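Final report, closing paragraph on structural work. Over the funding period we assembled a curated collection of sequence-structure pairs, and we close with a single example.
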Amino acid sequence: MKRQNITGFILCVALFGLGFFLNGNLNLYFNLSGLLIVFGGTFGATLLSFKTAQLAIVRKVLWSSYNRPVNNETEIINILIDLSIRSRADGILTLQQHENKTTVYFLRRALGCLVDGYKPEQIRDILNTEMYFFRLRREDSERVLRSIAEFFPSFGIIGSVVGLITMLGGIGDTSTILRAIPIALTSTLYGLIFSNFFFLPFAANLKERTNHELLLQKIIMEGVISIQSEMNPVILKTKLESFLTPSDRETKLVSYEKIRERFKIEKEQVKDKAFDLYLDD
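Its predicted structure, as stored:
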């Protein structure tokens, strides 16, 4: 997990806990019966809904999403530009050694297709298939997390109903009512906290990371196909930078003065005043 994520999480937990502390003793918000109902019911429903193998995959994916760093777009582009230069200088088959060195699985697979001499359309088809099923697997993991997030509030309400039934059954007995009130109120609290503070953010983080990795895979696919077609590295760099936001690009935009010179446009010849003002901007 990134340092800013940890810092933000600790700060939010501190503020969250402070809100409870200002309203009284924190021990008032702890109830073992409510916890057992919410957690027991949620994990029981989870085991009935999903295979244990799928839950193990979700655990691994979630762990890696917080602990395994991902290359940014600029790093991938620089790797592809370097490979493009090497392939033009020494030939595509020399990329075999770099295929074994890179740590990005998708890039290794793409380079393997390149080294084996696949045609551009074959490479694109293979990598598109890889991306499609990668997205399906991640969406499956995200669906599991969102389902668990939906289970928590539901069993929180069940815990509240159990507490209310106990209260109604203990009318006239003050001790029974006092034991049942914490169950009724804290169960809903636990369900909402664990759903909205943990599992929904887990799912959102996984989706954000998946979108980022899919963008990197698209860059890799276009870069490898361009290397196979022996595209000039300068042109390749310009093409791949289209995936970046304007603030992340190293290429500077051509000035309006050069555009006028290239197309032989004089300000007096421009009839559209709006266009004339645009050029002068």
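The mean pLDDT is 82. Residues 1-30 form one domain. We thank the funder for supporting this effort.
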